[in-house]
Amino acid sequence: PEEVERIKKRATEVRGQVAAERELQNPPTNMRPLQPGFIDLPQQQLEGYKRKQDRSELGRVLRVAQRLRDTVDRVVVLGIGGSYLASKAIFDALCHTYHNEMPAKLRMGKPRIYFEGNNVDNDALQDLFELLENTCVEPDLVEERWGVVVISKSGDTLETAAAYRAVRGEAAKFYGPKSELLRKVIAPITGAKNSKLRELCKADGIPDDDILTIPDEIGGRFSVFTGVGLLPAAVMGLDVRAMLLGAATMTRRFIEEPFDRNPVLQFAAVNHLMTERGKTTRVLSAWSKKLEAVGWWYDQLLSESLGKTGRGATPITTVGTRDLHSRGQQHQDGTRDKLINNLVVRQVKHPAVMIGMADRNEDDLNQFSRKGMPDLLDAAFRGANEAYADVARPTADIVLPMISEHTIGQLLQMLMLATVVEGRLAGTNPYGQPGVEAYKANMLRALKATPNLPKGEVRDAAKGV
Ligand code: PA5
Question: Does the pLDDT of residue 139 top 80, yes or no?
Fold first, then answer.
């Protein structure tokens, strides 16, 4: 109890510090980089739209999204890290689980969505090109047009840049190099300054106004409420204003509410305390498949923000009940280094699939005939947490009333704010990612040192190279 009281007080003090950092124009060197722009961004996006409508940043996002939806049937989102995971998390959480498999009529004008540039995987990229060239689809399927959202704040991340070069070439082949359509189907999102991607797009004749900007004061993994998350979400036909409203509400709660009603402070405090006590493996246990990618997004947020100077908890995402049959053993019985953060959804979206009565009862399930899938999940959740509690394995719960644009907006903002608070509690600067920068530089050097193939020769699997 003393520790809890101490951490409540400390977390509340840190909240004041994080709030004040928003006003710091010239941070001292030991606080750099300082990128608190994400804190007020959701509210600013909404206010800007109210005042300036189409001329606001959100207005531009909506306009570009509408243009893509009007022009193409498939959209490839290119980006990596903070320029990829937010849109993947939003897509998985809020779109139909089989969105891409659905016929156009049922998708109601929403394009199919694919993610690339988030790796360097030759064969996956070739498979995507086959799909885009319509060579591996049902023969009677009408040729589908496709477009690209290319996201890179720095504008020179090698994975995204190389994928974009290849995709840009494919697009030129698909539409014809001089086609007017080319400019319409490419939507870039990049930093304001020194971005090679911006220069390339400008040289390709994409108007400046159609290139969305990630502001300097917002770091990659904190950029979900810039065009980075909003444009793909709007292309998917999601209610981005509801998402922003959820996020803005969370910021207000963070700033105004006392600890006992403040989910940001509570989450940061519990996680900080447990990490300090040696629970250095942090499991995000999502009790819905649809939230697994939110877990991947949080893995990145935590790793890149707090995994510094030899410290920081190691994040892992699991899905209940799937991973109870794999990792569950270790969580129950393995090394005592884990805190399990359950991410729970109270209300499912669709009517319950019932177990029901069957003519044959060899499976012995008729006893549960009047129970449904949500009852099963709830029983598993309670069973697992009771088992953890029995052997003193700590857990904490984040409860969403349902999965919607509004709750996902709240959740993402809550986790970003909590990560910054936790960083300040631990004395770690949550912004910047020097470790990632080191690998990027090394990769570039290694690539420069790799011998070139003879001119015109393609590295070919068939030749056994
Ligand atoms: O959080 C971050 O800053 C990183 O994960 C970046 O988002 C990632 O490295 C991609 O960088 P960029 O958007 O510059 O291509």
Answer: no
Q: Kindly state if the Cβ of 214 falls inside 6 Å of ligand 1.
A: no
- How close is the Cα of 180 to the center of ligand 1, in Å? 31
Q: Which residue from 82, 151, 73 is spatially nearest to 107, judged by alpha carbons?
A: 73
- pLDDT at position 462 over 70: no
User: What's the gap in Å between 397 CA and the centre of ligand 1?
Assistant: 29
Q: Is the CB of 188 under 6 A from ligand 1?
A: no
105, 178, 193, 325: the catalytic one is 325
pLDDT in tens, 246-297: 999 999 999 999 999 999 999 999 999 999 999 999 999 999 999 999 999 9
Count of CB atoms within 10 A of residue 239's CB?
15
Q: Per-residue pLDDT tens for 197-238?
A: 999 999 999 999 999 999 999 999 999 999 999 999 999 999
Cα of 82 from ligand 1 centre, angstroms: 5
Q: Is the CB of 271 under 6 A from ligand 1?
A: no
154 C-beta closer than 6 A to ligand 1 = yes
Of 116, 304, 405, 422, catalytic: 304
ipTM for the whole complex: 0.99
Whole-angstrom distance between the N-terminal and C-terminal Cα of the chain? 64
Quickly state the pLDDT bin for 143 (edges 50, 70, 90).
confident
Question: Greater confidence, 461 or 67?
Answer: 67
Q: If you average pLDDT over residues 392-400, what whole number do you get?
A: 98
Pick the closest to residue 80 from 41, 51, 113, 120 (CA basis): 120
Does any ligand 1 atom lie closer than 6 A to the CB of residue 436?
yes
